[in-house]
Amino acid sequence: MSNKKVIENYMEGFRKGDHGQILSCLTDNVVWEMSGLFYKVGKEAFDKEIENDAFTGKPKITLIRMVEEGNIVVAEGSVTCQMKNGELLDAMFCDVFHFEGDKIKQLTGYLMQNKQL
Predict the structure, then answer these.
(1) Who contacts 103 (Cβ-Cβ below 8 Å, separation ≥6)?
(2) Among candidates 87, 100, 81, which has minimal Cα distance to 25?
(3) Which of 56, 67, 105, 116 is deepest in the core (most CB within 10 A)?
(4) CA-to-CA distance for 93 and 44, rounded, in angstroms?
């Protein structure tokens, strides 16, 4: 499976709320960093963050583009999800995935809330 296909499978797992599908895309010692928000190491820590307590329901994720070079894939897209406090997360993301073989070994994510002008 190509690295881009792994990312598509990973994103589909989030859309469905399928922890097993998401975790199958990761190395055991995966590192997940959301710039300015959190830093997680290992599948167990990753699994606990998949359904963050601040949110309800499943996210709507739209991939806009992916660029692959060597063992790195950069994915750009949008995400919306209902928050438990009543607000809506409506954001753009840019995720940088580092691969080891056919698994994600590191993910650095950048998230920016869309704002009405």
Answers:
(1) 6, 25, 26, 27, 30
(2) 100
(3) 105
(4) 23
pLDDT band at 55 (very low <50, low <70, confident <90, very high): confident
What's the pLDDT score for residue 108? 97
User: Which residue, among 77, 35, 36, 40, has the nearest Cα to 60 in the 3D structure?
Assistant: 77
The rounded distance, in Å, linking the Cα atoms of 44 and 34 is 16
Half-sphere exposure of 112 (CA within 13 A, CB side): 8
Q: What is the pLDDT of residues 25-45, one digit of tens each?
A: 999 999 999 988 899 999 999
The token duo for 85 is 């406090």
Distance CA 102, CA 27 (A): 9
Helix (H) / strand (E) element for 102: namely: none
Length of the chain: 117
> Where are the alpha helices (H) located in 17-58, listed in sequence order?
19-23, 43-50
CA nearest neighbour of 4 among 61, 81, 76, 59: 76
Intra-chain end-to-end CA distance of the chain, in Å = 42
